[in-house]
Design a protein that fits this description.
The protein is an alpha+beta fold and 150 residues long. The chain has a single domain, classed as Nucleoside Triphosphate Pyrophosphohydrolase. The chain has three helices and eight strands. Strands 1, 4, 5, 6 and 7 form a five-stranded mixed β-sheet that branches. Strand 2 and strand 3 form a beta hairpin.
Length: 150
């Protein structure tokens, strides 16, 4: 998150519009992969902010590999999410209005390995067994994806 961190040095915690991507990884049982985040102790999707020069698909692939150890062979762009419901204030005070390209990935390789600076745990969940504490921006994406892809 070099680009955003550099911006924060100038603007502090004021709201920023942040472009990024998230990945809904589905296993062979149609369960989705969630990560228990270190920063807010909520479950969420693999994903993160765009760096200078990256495409949204590159962001999705990079973040997936960094946070989970999985390598996306194919990604399917499902939707672009933005607007008031994607506003989020991090526990340390930084505010963002997210613009998120959401991808579904069912074709991947690698072994699950949590990136311990950001991720406490990785686990697959069925649509009917999602945890209650899902990170707010990810909850918007997950709800819509589950409705559109059932």
């Amino acid at each position: 998150m070099g680009y955003i961190m550099d911006l924060r040095k100038v603007v502090g915690s004021r709201p920023l519009i942040v472009a990024g991507a998230s990945v809904i990884v589905k296993d062979q049982h149609d369960r989705i992969l969630l990560q228990l985040r270190q920063d807010n102790n909520c479950w969420g999707l693999a994903g993160g902010s765009m760096e200078m020069g990256e495409t949204l698909e590159e962001v999705a692939k990079r973040e997936l590999q960094e946070e989970t150890g999985l390598i996306a062979n194919e990604l399917e762009l499902v939707n672009i999410f933005s607007g008031e419901e994607l506003y989020y204030q991090y526990p340390h005070g930084d505010e963002v209005y997210n613009v998120i390209a959401a991808y579904i990935c069912t074709d991947y390789t690698g072994e699950l390995k949590a990136e311990l600076k950001e991720v406490k745990e990785l686990r697959f969940f069925g649509a009917d067994e999602l945890p209650a504490n899902i990170s707010p921006p990810d909850l918007v994406v997950i709800r819509r994806i589950l409705i559109y892809h059932e």
